[in-house]
Amino acid sequence: MSLRVPNHIAIIMDGNGRWAKEKGMPRTYGHKAGADTLRKILTSCGELGIKYLTVYAFSTENWKRAKEEVDTLMFLFKTYLKNEKKLLMKNNVKFLVSGRKEGVSKDLLAEISKLEEATKGNTGITLNIAFNYGGRAELVDAIKEIVKNNEKEITEETVEKYLYNQLPDPELLIRTSGEMRISNFLLWQIAYSEIYVTDTYWPDFNKDELIKAIESYQKRDRRFGGVK
């Protein structure tokens, strides 16, 4: 692996439901498998020297899904928070969540806060989970805070100060399952991200697939609007 590894990778973890359907299983089975994949990919990212990983776990639009599926996603996330603490601490992972709190149960919010607090001093890879997240919602919330704080000068730096978590912009955005859209994910932050789409469903995404995405990124000529 070349030295030019992205500092920050963002992933739209898509295809859990279709993966399960092809196996004759309910969508919830796919989400459980997807949670296992996240654990493996986080470990792989740490091994490859990536400093930040942001994953799209639950969007503000996902509330429209069937109640059984939403309830399963909430249960899985709560279970993940409880079960992963020991591993996150062992691997020096800092844990963050980006998204709105409205609509999320108090006990789930409490688990999120506990894990963020427990890992805040860790200095390895940062795992940022976009949960109850929407890119437009994030910008609306930032604007509300800018107005509330009576900011006199509005610059890009001003807006960035009020985003959910002040992380470096991702250099690489990966979307699994072949869909060619960004689905309201990190609209501000991915302005100059390289995009990599794979037909592989998220439960089948592994370290080899991750390396393919990074190798594709390494071949890109990143000019940021300029000319070399």
Automatic annotation (TrEMBL):
This enzyme's EC code(s): 2.5.1.-
Top class in the EC scheme: transferase
Gene3D superfamilies: Decaprenyl diphosphate synthase-like
UniProt: substrate binding residues: 15-19, 27, 31, 59-61, 63, 65, 175, 181-183
Alphabetized GO MF terms: ditrans,polycis-polyprenyl diphosphate synthase [(2E,6E)-farnesyl diphosphate specific] activity; magnesium ion binding
UniProt KW keywords: Magnesium, Metal-binding, Transferase
Active site, per annotation: D14, N62
One of the protein's GO biological processes: polyprenol biosynthetic process
PROSITE patterns the UniProt entry points to: UPP_SYNTHASE
Cofactor(s) needed for function: Mg(2+)
Keyword Nucleotide-binding: no
Cited Pfam families: Prenyltransf
PANTHER family, alphabetized: DEHYDRODOLICHYL DIPHOSPHATE SYNTHASE 2, DEHYDRODOLICHYL DIPHOSPHATE SYNTHASE FAMILY MEMBER
Subunit structure: Homodimer.
Homology family: Belongs to the UPP synthase family.
Protein's name in the database: Isoprenyl transferase
